[in-house]
Amino acid sequence: MNLNKGKNSIKDLIWKYLCSMKVGIILLIIVAILSIFGTLIPQGAEEEVYYRQYSETVADIILFTGMDNVFETWWYLLVGGLLCVNLLACSINRFPGIYRGVFSPKKVKNDRGINNLKNQTELFLSQNKDKEKAFDEIETVLKQEGFKIEHPREDSVYASKGRFGYFGSFITHISFLILILAFMYGNLTGFEDSVGGVPGETISMNYADFDLKVEDFRIDYRDDYSVDQYYSDLTILENGEETKTETIYVNRPLRHDGLNFYQSSYGWVGSLRIEDEEKFFLDTVQVFEDRSYRYRMGNLTVHLEAFYPDYGYDAEGSPVNKSPYPNNPRFIWYLLDGKNELVDMMVSEKGETYEYENVEFTFTDYDQYTVLRVVRDPSVPIFYFGSVLMMVGLILSFFFAPRRIWVNFGKDDDGNDRILIGGQSFKSKAQFEEDFKEIINIIKEKVG
Question: 278 CB contacts (<8 Å, ≥6 apart)?
Answer without folding.
Answer: none
